[in-house]
Design goal:
InterPro entries: ClpP/crotonase-like_dom_sf, CtpA/B_N, PDZ, PDZ_6, PDZ_sf, Peptidase_S41A, Tail-specific_protease
Radius of gyration: 23 Å
Mean pLDDT: 83
Helix content: 25-40%
Low-confidence stretches: 1-25, 474-484
Pfam families: CtpB_N-like, PDZ_6, Peptidase_S41
CATH architecture of the largest domain: Alpha-Beta Complex
GO biological process, one term: proteolysis
CATH superfamily of the largest domain: 2-enoyl-CoA Hydratase, Chain A, domain 1
Distance between the termini: 31 Å
Number of helices: 11
Biased composition (Basic and acidic residues): 416-442
Structural class: alpha/beta
Oligomer: single chain
Shape: globular
GO molecular function, one term: endopeptidase activity
Number of domains: 2
Length: 488
Amino acid sequence: MGRTIQAATWVGAGILTGALATISVQTVARSTVSPLPLQELQQFAAVYGLIKSDYVEPVDDKKLISDAISGMVSGLDPHSQYFDEESFKEFREGTSGRFVGVGIEITQEDGLIRIVSPIEGSPADRAGLKTNDLITQIDSTPVKGLTLTDAVKRMRGEPDTHVKLTIFRRDEDRTFTVDIKREEIKTQSVKAAIVEPGYAWIRLSQFQDRTVEDFVAKMVDIYTKEPQLKGLVLDLRNDPGGLMDAAVAISAAFLPRDVVVVTTDGQLPESKAVFTTNPQHYMSRRFLGGDPLQRLPEAIKTVPLVVLVNEGSASASEIVAGALQDHDRAIIMGRQTFGKGSVQTVRPLGPDTGIKLTTALYYTPSGRSIQAKGIEPDVLLDDTPEGSPYAALRMREADLLQHLGDDPAQDTPEQAARRERAREQALERLQNEAKAHDDKAPQRPPQFGSPEDFQLQQALNQLKGQPVQAAKGDETLAADAAAIPVAP
C-alpha cells in the first residue's frame, strides 16, 4: 500500500483538541468535482456585501472568509476543522508528542471545554484534573463564547508561566480553580511493570512516533525478567488514539501474520482500504532499523491477554481493542469505549492553511463500525469496588452534536428510558453529595498500574482464573465473568 493513514491530533501548547482522529495528510487539495450552486453563492455574496457595508465597524476581508470556511467545515461533524495559519502550524508540531503547555486533550461541549484526558505526568495530571472535567474560565476570561482555537491560545504561553483554570467537575457537582505552570511536555506513551510474579502490565497512553519501538523494548525487558510469563494486561484506558500504523503494529504484535486489523471505507477510492498484520501495512520510514516486531519473543503471540479500556479509549486504541476482540485473541475488560470510528484527512489549502475533513469510517475485522457505538467489553467493570455511580453522565462520541451515525432508532424506547433514569439518579446523587465537597481540592483517582487500581486487579483475577467482580447491576456479566476463558 503506497500510503500511510495516521491518527493524530491538533496540539496547541500541550492542549490536544478532540478525541484523536484517524488522519491521512494529503499534499495537494483535491479539485472541485461538483457544479457550484450559483443561487446559494449569490446569497453568500449578498451577505458578505451587507456585512462590509452595514456592519457597525469595518471587518477585515480575511477574517470574514476565514470565519466562513471555519463555519462551513465545523458544521459537518465534531471532528472536521479549518486550520488557520497558527493552528495549522500547531497541528504539524503536535504529531511529534513534544510540546509546551499544560498537557490535556480537550474537546468543545455546549460552549465549554471538556477534558478528554490529561497526559500522564503533565502539569494538568499533577494538578488532579480528570477526564470529563469542564473548563469554564481561563484566567479571568469565561470560556463560554470563545472558539476552541481562542480557548487554546489563552491556555498557551511560555514555559514556567502560569495559567489559572476554573473547573466544573460534574461527578462531584462542584467548581474549583487550579493554578498550573506551563512546561514542555514530553509524553512517555509506554509504561510497563511486572505486577506479580508471572504477570505483567503494559500501558499505552497514546500512539506516537516512538510507541512501537518503546513497546517492543518494554516487552523484551519483561520477557528477560519473566521468560515464563503467564499473563499480560494491555492497558488502553484513557488512550485517545494516535498514529494508525502504530495501532496496526501493536495489533500485529499479538496476532498471526496476514490477518485483518482494520478496514476503512468512504466516498473516495483511496478511502477504501484493508490493513493487515503484514509488515507492509505498519512499516514506516520511522523504523530505520527494519521491522521492530521481529525483536519480540514468539511467546507474545500466545500469552494470555486482557485488554483494559474505558470511555477515554478512542480511535486508534479502539482499533487495537476491536481487532484483538474480533480475533478472539484477548478478553476486553472495563467500560464501553468512546466510539470514535471516523477517519479525517488533512489537506492543505495553501502553504499555511488547511482543513481536516472526515473522509471515511473504519471497521473492525468482523465488519463492525464502532462509530458512535464504541467497543463493548467482554467483561464490564466498575471503576471502584463501590461501583461507578456517575457513569451515566460520561460523554462519548454519541453524545457529541452532529456526530456521524446519529440514528434516532438506535435506542429502543425502553433503552432510552433506562438511560434517562440512570442520568437522573446520578444527578440526584450529585445534588445530595454537593455540600460535602464545597471548594475542596480535587481528589486524584488511583494511579493506573498501582495496587489500588481496581480494574487492573480484576484483570489479573481474570488471567489467574479467579472470581472477577464485574460491574454492579449487570447480573449476566457478573455471572459469566469467571467462565470467560482468556485466549491462548
